[in-house]
Specification:
alpha+beta; five-stranded antiparallel β-sheet; 28% strand; globular
């Protein structure tokens, strides 16, 4: 399943399916920064996250889910840090 990953201002990851419209309850999560997409099997996510996505259209990743999502993350072009230029000698 292709998931859109956002980061809240407190560092938690907000996860929603890429194939569904943006759920209205998402506005209650505050300022979100879209950090990329992840393609993972729905069955690899925790039961809590899968139930939240099924019920509300999005969920908050716990520590285990966050680790899996960050490993699978395909960053947004704007979220990729540019390398620092080499200092001139």
């Amino acid at each position: 399943m292709r998931l859109v990953i956002h980061e809240r201002s407190d560092g938690l990851l907000v996860v929603l399916p890429a194939s569904l419209p943006r759920p209205p309850g998402l506005v209650d999560e505050g300022v979100l920064t879209r950090i990329g997409h992840a393609s993972v099997a729905f069955t690899d996510l925790s039961p809590g996250l899968t139930v939240a996505i099924a019920m509300r259209g999005f969920g908050i990743a716990d520590d285990g889910d966050e680790a899996l999502l960050r490993v699978s993350l395909e960053p947004e072009a704007s979220a990729v840090a540019e390398p620092e230029p080499e200092p001139e000698p």
